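Can you give me the bound-state structure? Components:
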Amino acid sequence: MSELTKNIVWDDVKHDPNAVKVLDHGFVVLKETMGSDSTIAESARVSYGAGTKTISDDRNLIRYLMRHHHTSPFEMAEARFLVKVPVFIWRQWIRHRTANVNELSGRYSELPEEYYVPDEWRAQSVTNKQGGEEPMFYESKNVEEAAFDEYRNRLNEGVSRELARTCLPVSHYTLAYWKCDIHNIMHFLKLRLHSHAQHEIQLYARTIYTLLKDRFPLTVEAFEDYVLNCESFSRMELHLLKEMLKQSKMTIFTEARAEDMGMSRREYVEFSNKISKIFNFNK
Amino acid sequence: MSELTKNIVWDDVKHDPNAVKVLDHGFVVLKETMGSDSTIAESARVSYGAGTKTISDDRNLIRYLMRHHHTSPFEMAEARFLVKVPVFIWRQWIRHRTANVNELSGRYSELPEEYYVPDEWRAQSVTNKQGGEEPMFYESKNVEEAAFDEYRNRLNEGVSRELARTCLPVSHYTLAYWKCDIHNIMHFLKLRLHSHAQHEIQLYARTIYTLLKDRFPLTVEAFEDYVLNCESFSRMELHLLKEMLKQSKMTIFTEARAEDMGMSRREYVEFSNKISKIFNFNK
Amino acid sequence: MSELTKNIVWDDVKHDPNAVKVLDHGFVVLKETMGSDSTIAESARVSYGAGTKTISDDRNLIRYLMRHHHTSPFEMAEARFLVKVPVFIWRQWIRHRTANVNELSGRYSELPEEYYVPDEWRAQSVTNKQGGEEPMFYESKNVEEAAFDEYRNRLNEGVSRELARTCLPVSHYTLAYWKCDIHNIMHFLKLRLHSHAQHEIQLYARTIYTLLKDRFPLTVEAFEDYVLNCESFSRMELHLLKEMLKQSKMTIFTEARAEDMGMSRREYVEFSNKISKIFNFNK
Amino acid sequence: MSELTKNIVWDDVKHDPNAVKVLDHGFVVLKETMGSDSTIAESARVSYGAGTKTISDDRNLIRYLMRHHHTSPFEMAEARFLVKVPVFIWRQWIRHRTANVNELSGRYSELPEEYYVPDEWRAQSVTNKQGGEEPMFYESKNVEEAAFDEYRNRLNEGVSRELARTCLPVSHYTLAYWKCDIHNIMHFLKLRLHSHAQHEIQLYARTIYTLLKDRFPLTVEAFEDYVLNCESFSRMELHLLKEMLKQSKMTIFTEARAEDMGMSRREYVEFSNKISKIFNFNK
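Here's the bound-state model for the whole set.
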């Protein structure tokens, strides 16, 4: 590859000690963050004023914000990543529009022969139309090598980079800076950690999740409790729940039991209200 | 008021038969929509392809999309409104950033003496820090009139409109076109129909909701069942639910019961899975 | 291809009489627009009030808005397209974030063997690092066919669609609904009609431009005069211009001359002011 | 004012040494930035690869990006401000949608009696419909005090904060965190430093501009040269320029002259191309 068309960042990052490996050739590097759990709490305090004095500490305030979908304070912190990722995954990633992106361009740089090959093939799921599930044996024929050979041949013959690359497989790696506020990263994580997301993007999401938790521990803890591991019930489902619960003895619920689970007094009241609402459902 | 500085649209719209009155001087006019329930279903079909054949009709497909937070097809339809609203309410409205707005400017037009006076005063709630609740008697002193007098005096003396208006109360009415895709209108409705939203913006939201339902009946029906009237339970709440449900006899649930509630077979399976998940929870 | 995994829209659209062909297998269909030149003018009138009475007709008002970067009225109209486009072009397209998108998913549908092959190869430009320029002879080796063979083989063996597709070339076609307001479509056009944009996306932009002009003639005319064919000069360039113009006789400029060019009186004054500003530049 | 409804941040920030005063009671505090000129250059390098090697240093690269509207690298840096600003100005500010905001809420906090009174009144401009121009004498009647008296009376009588505040003037101060990427801050500055923007928001823009320049000197320098102090000429204006330039002797332009102005060789070529384009204009 000509020195002139090599991508500088691609080479520089190869030995970055902060790069967390994902897939066969991919990685995620957390380059920088702005703000912290405290920034988020401080931002909420300008809106809610002394009302937040009763929610005295940052942890309680952050949990309150997360529980009640007061999302704007979580936009006040940011994280910037450098990611290397196969194009077919990047195409899913980029659908999250509220983010800032600078991606390597195959019009400027020659693309190195790096492409993703699954170390385990997954069979098409019958029930889940979008996904693959069980591992299966498949002896793949390598067609990628021929594609890269043709690519290099085109370049050698003087074909423009922008046309030469058209034969490359969607499994080839690309490199991008991705910057996003914490609210929108959590939205990304909610969708991409989901079991229906493609396995490969789940692995990237998992990595970002771990890196984020390290910097924003209170926020990510609240995210786990109120978003990631929550469950929503539709109007009709709430009716079914009501019928199921009718047979249950509400009396078993003491506030103490809720406290054991780590719920605040305020949360317990909110829960009781939800249950009462279910019982008062009539339609 | 000088003919030269009157706002044309303000006067024109006064007798619009499509204007739905809100508050003492406000209104909402639905000017135009693009797309329909069918557009939304059609948009989903390009993504999900033959997978949506099994979800044969538009209603089922739309309900599936809403239930599973596949939001992008709902962005494929739009609605454009003309609204007249007090400034303190408009300031809440405008916080929804994914919308297009053209608002009357007090730098160009002279502002007519129209301001909101509640026909019933609400006392400060003690439990709900952001809201007012119970009606109360309060004999308000009119300070708005003096503000408008001073405003007009400034104009008469030649003060620029941009400075003259600074003394006007935040209750004065403004006028704006507001255009938004259906997904984001539903997000607006979810937040502004909420009982914790200020009463006045709830009234506007209610009006928009009714107008929208007329044009997008299937979408709004699904929105009611899966968003507006749904309830989310946190990780801890799901534990409490589990304990309550333990005492219940699951056997009462026949699919027939779910069908009575208008749930599809697919939804019933999803519900069963949620309940199983709750039972398999071990912190 | 199995009936179950065929994409419905892909087949339906094949014989759409409104599809404008682009490249070997691509097209653009204008599905729907909301609003018109009049909507844009009407939206401006709510903001600028009687101030726009002096700009009496829609054409003049639209030209004024375009000239002075009053962009929000142009957001009040929308257009929705169905496009079929090679993935490497779509990746450039999707970088415009202020748009709504529903794209075919290779996780749900089997991808037909349709990929872009240039009918003329372009050599790498030496001066323009991002582009190709002169046509050249190149005998391309077909590596795409082998990739699609491998793809189908994977599917036949039961590999999940989401993994099977990874070997397909970035030249394979995808299908998407793309909806965007007129302001942002013009921004897209400005960048993608530019001679430095890749030739293939220029062709799509050209098609959208023609379709848009048919529906929004006044807006597109103003876009041509004030955006597409305008030229910006930097601080330093204005100094150079000043020196060049110093030798020129300003007197040749009569308002009549400007009128011949189709400029309004107001525009002529604006131009004179720009020239005066240049002459009064002192670093 | 009750301790319970005081806004914490409002009081805390009063003596912040970093607060830059604007107007009678307002200020801007730069709380935090993420990234630097180097971050911006580094982000461009991932896209343009070795192509940027010829643009060796950060300054040249940043100037190139600014000149050619390659805006995405400028989105890779952020700044977060705390601002105190009158409501009528904030209403203009908030129209910039690509930003993150947390504003004080009058539903939670009691609003202190602080409102903007111009130290000099401006007369309505006749030529510029939106603005005020010449200073004038005007003896303003204070109607704001009565509004605040009524406000406090309402609160004392138990009226909810959300209704009590409706009589307050739009000149009353609000407090907000405002976070924005550098590209969008520059867009804000371009519009709000403009002589047609309201004088008061120009003062805020000026303050932000100064704070930004301190942290991103190369970026702001390029912004000045290629955006703030540039001038655009329409299709018709370019024709007029052509006629003016026809009489000029192009020969006066040596590259050396351009170099004196601080232009790079590359820029000089670009300028020559623009001039040639003007001369080849025919329509």
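A couple of observations. The beta strands of chain C are 20-22, 26-34, 78-86, 100-103, 121-124, 132-136, 173-181, 231-233. DSSP finds twelve helices and eight strands in chain C.
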